[in-house]
Amino acid sequence: MALLNDGPPSSIQDLTALDSQLLEVASAEGIDLSAKLALAHEQVTIEVDGMLRRYLTGPRMEQVVVTPVLRLWHTYTALELIYRDAFHNQQNDRYGRKRDEFRERAHWASETLMEIGIGMTAEPVPQAVTPQLTEVPGLLADGLYFVTLSWINLAEEEGASGIPGTISTTGSSFVVQPGDVPPSVCGWNVYAGTQPDSLFRQNMAPIATSETWLQPGALMTSGPKPCNGQSAAYLYPIQRILMRG
């Protein structure tokens, strides 16, 4: 799973999986779904940070891993924000009921997260950047290539792959540069393919952070695919604080 700090945990596809009429509503009411996903991510991040700040010696925000229940919380929060805007636009009771329903579900998800625990990793690896690609002499078949990379820490845990870059070759090949590498990273992997949804790892062993990758010839067309990020190493439960009075 990706880290919470990597960006919105859920996608528009996750939203429509829970509400099949969402695209029609967004179009009719002029609602930017990507903007709502980003706003929900900011809201959930602030709340998770507040949970962790109760403990002076607890884990840090950058260690938080997106678990299924955390993704659900984000998805429900985004849907609540969408239907809140739709209701304000039209004062439509159906939109109001949807808003209230998703608010309740978001509350359930946040309570469940506190009970189960927030997913954590000891050595967080952030999502990689889009690689820097340069055309060089080589024997790669002419065409358009999609390339991404992911970073690896000392524990050999792999972070989420970055947004793919593209490069066209004509009687040539390409070199991949990882860009600025975070201090916790000790190596990286490169993935490439001729379609953005069909990328495979090209290196047999992790590449050192000081090195670049030269695509030697024909692409590997099987094997590991781009990584979605680290798994939670442990769950960190959050105690509820009861007010006296």
Would you give an account of this structure?
This protein is of the alpha+beta class and 245 residues long. The chain folds into two domains: 4-120, no CATH class; 132-214, no CATH class. 33% of the residues lie in helices and 21% in strands. The chain is built from five helices and ten strands; from the N terminus they run αααααββββββββββ. Strands 3, 4, 6, 7 and 8 form a five-stranded antiparallel beta sheet that branches. A hairpin with a 6-residue loop joins strand 6 (185-193) and strand 7 (200-201). Helix 4 runs antiparallel to helix 5 (93-116). The radius of gyration is 21 Å and the shape is flat. The two termini are 41 Å apart. The mean pLDDT is 93.
- In angstroms, what is the radius of gyration? 21 Å
Low-confidence stretches: none
Helix proportion: 25-40%
> Major beta sheet, specifics?
5 strands, antiparallel
Q: Class by helix and strand content?
A: alpha+beta
